[in-house]
Design goal:
Layout: H1 3-12, E1 15-21, H2 25-36, E2 41-44, E3 60-61, H3 65-69, H4 73-89, E4 95-103, H5 108-123, E5 132-134, H6 136-142, E6 153-161, H7 164-177, E7 181-183, E8 186-194, E9 197-205, E10 210-221, H8 227-234, E11 245-253, E12 262-265, E13 274-279, E14 282-286, E15 290-291, H9 303-314, E16 328-334, E17 352-356, E18 362-366, H10 372-386, H11 421-428, E19 436-438, E20 441-444, H12 445-454, H13 460-467, H14 470-473, H15 475-493, H16 497-511
Parallel strand pairs: 1-2, 1-10, 2-7, 4-12, 10-18
Antiparallel strand pairs: 3-6, 4-6, 5-6, 8-9, 9-10, 11-14, 11-15, 11-16, 12-13, 13-14, 17-18, 19-20
Helix pairs in contact: 2-7, 2-10, 11-12, 12-15, 15-16
Length: 517
Amino acid sequence: MNRDLMIKKIEDVKEWDIIVIGGGATGAGIALDAAHRGLKTLLLEKFDFGKGASSKSTKLIHGGVRYLQQGNFPLVIEALRERGILLKNANHLVSNLPFVVPTYDWWESAFYGLGLKLYDAMAGKYGFGDSKILSRDETLKKIPTLIPEGLRGGVIYYDGQFDDSRLLINILQTAVELGATTLNYAEVIDFIKSNGFVKGVVVREKEKEKEYLLKSKVVINATGVFTDEIRRMDEPGAEKLMEPSRGTHIVLEREFLPGHSAVMVPHTDDGRILFAIPWHGKVLVGTTDMEVESPTSEPIATFEEIEFLLEHAGRYLTRKPEREDILSVFAGLRPLIKQGGSEVTAKISREHAIHISKSGLLTIAGGKWTTYRKMAEDAVDKALALCDFNFQKSKTEEVKIHGWLEKPLNSKRFEIYGSDAEDVEMLCNKGDWYDLIHPQLNIHKGEVIWAVRKEMARSVEDFLARRRRALFLNAQAAIESAPVVAELMAKELRKGKDWRKSQLKEFEKIAKYYLPV
């Protein structure tokens, strides 16, 4: 992906078939689906791709055990199917992960074992492995840091894990390879209307501070928690559709959860499921569920949420994590759809909905990362019907995502890049680009160059937060490495000292929220 080429395309194309507002998982999926059907497609993102919830998930591709508890079987079946499709099409980033449910009461093993057998059955041919009941010794062998007192055994089942923002970039790269145009730091500030119908958008490109009037046959609003903001740009009095909630995660050293299995606690004090997951050599613990009045691009975890996670993790681990053990803390906003009478956001469904305004603005809201492909398919189907395009059935089930591997890599060093790994390593081997940007971060200088040239990284935050996950894995190390990244990016982007100083100031402002309060 080359940003200069993307800007040239928006200057050259007179009318688009589809303009997508929002560069998160749903928007990226729509761009891929539409481009694969041969539609002239443009995606616009106000910030960086995945700046919002799409980079701040629990890093799971799963059917949703919680939705199984709620009896929402259709959603679970759909998500389990999509989980299988993602493993097939993005095998360089999506992997199978065993989860252990520890049991301390006499009835729990049979109860959870039966429920997870149902989970297996719902997956059908897309199953990741058969669940089974574990003895006490087997459970401790899988999770040696579990508190042994009172432990009766456990249940093991299998779900998917991934790197969310890396997958997002690869989906966008796939869409571009299919002919789509994608642009970050391009804010939609108004709609173009003709006879009361939306016929395009007015966009402000932030780097050059230039505005563009872009015509389109249909406009799709895929902005997650900012859905209502865009809808009210179209209809000032539009009724509230979103009811976002904040989910907070903490990151700890691997010693808290050695081995290759995750822990799933099926019930916490607020009624949510709690996960402790091995991820990129660290341990991710989450998540909370807090109602949010007004969505922001950088939600902040509260003291109480962090304490909640520390307290619940301490109930199950032999070494109770303390605040000083936290390497990073991050919060994301779930794009939940408002439902009448539902006061607890943990109980609001993750199903998606499509809304078409009087002016023809198509909005897709709700859903979750696992079902991004199906959401995109449904949105493009509606767009085709809305604009009387020649209907073509979606075939994205068979589309391999950029980075997909035909055979495993020989080296694990650059494995997150999948089929690009060899090219990334070759770039790193030039000059001193093989050096690490920080001794506590397994990130090479050449990866910064790659992110600028191939993945449209435009800021220090883009790289340290989303192209590589330093800010999420070790916030202090990310802050300390920022000057190195800024210098590398400045040379590549032909920026001066003022740009570097501004970047460091902006990154430190954001990064402080990832340190425990």
